[in-house]
Specification:
The chain has one domain: 2,3-Dihydroxybiphenyl 1,2-Dioxygenase, domain 1. 23% of the residues lie in helices and 37% in strands. The strands form 2 sheets. Strands 5, 6, 7, 8 and 9 form a 5-stranded mixed beta sheet that branches. Strands 1-4-3-2 form a 4-stranded mixed beta sheet.
């Protein structure tokens, strides 16, 4: 089964660049209102609407969003953290627990969307 996620954005270009640089997504198609990004069997759609441009603040993490995408990472946390920071995101301190045999760490992208990193056993 192929899976995906839609994120509303105030700046598609900036957010697409973040996910391409940090998580190796490829832009499949885009215009001024959307971008379709792919990596493996995962599809990420970024949508920019008049409402999202007005409503979405990039000043802080969106702590009240009731959904959090998870990215399974098989590189050291230090390397992915550096990429995230270089592209305008934030990485929180790693949690002191594991889930599914992987270290858990949260972060947020350049627009404040919170995601979870699960760092692989091989790192």
């Amino acid at each position: 089964m192929r899976t995906g996620l839609v994120i509303y954005s105030s700046s598609i270009r900036r957010l697409a660049e973040f996910y391409c640089q940090v998580f190796d997504f490829d832009v499949q198609e885009s215009d001024e209102s959307y971008a379709l990004l792919m990596t493996g069997d995962f599809e990420l759609v970024l949508l920019e609407t008049a409402m999202s441009k007005k409503a979405l603040s990039t000043d802080s993490a969106r702590e009240d969003t009731p959904i959090k995408p998870v990215f399974f990472i098989d590189v050291p946390l230090e390397l992915i953290s550096q990429k995230i920071k270089e592209n305008g995101g934030t990485v929180y301190q790693p949690k002191s627990w594991e889930f599914g045999g992987r270290q858990v760490c949260d972060g947020c992208d350049c627009e404040g969307n919170i995601f979870q990193l699960r760092v692989g056993k091989n790192t």
